[in-house]
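Exercise 3.2. Students should predict the tertiary structure of the chain below and write it as structure tokens, then compare their answer with the key that follows.

Predict this chain's 3D structure.
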Amino acid sequence: MDWIDILEKSIWFGFGALGFAVLFNVPTRTLLIIWILGAVGGTLKLIAMRYGLTIITGTLLGATSVGLLSIVAALNRNAPPLIFSIPAVIPMIPGVFIYKFILGVITLSGSADAENYASTLNHTVSFATQVIFILVSIAIG
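Answer key:
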């Protein structure tokens, strides 16, 4: 992953956070900080993954940084920390893994082929485990 690619994705992480902030109707005085927190959290996640850490560890690092920085932002803007942290970590939710997990469950429910069943079950459980650990990492952060 190139540094330009990481910079571009961090900008999109910020816009994702900004979109959820607007959806949740947060005060307009907090929008810039939410964009920055989303970009910082996403960038730390991507940099951690670039240097060999897993997506789970990278998500934990990004969500923890967003959590700590949102406390500082809450003190400066006189607002609850959840206004800053919740929209900023939502773009870190693993949508692709959740999609593949649900697709595996649907495939397993209609599959009668014993040869592909074990492989599909293995992939489905793997995706479910990754989703659980990533969501726990976000919750801890």
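Discussion points: The CA atoms of residues 98 and 105 lie 11 Å apart. The mean pLDDT is 91.
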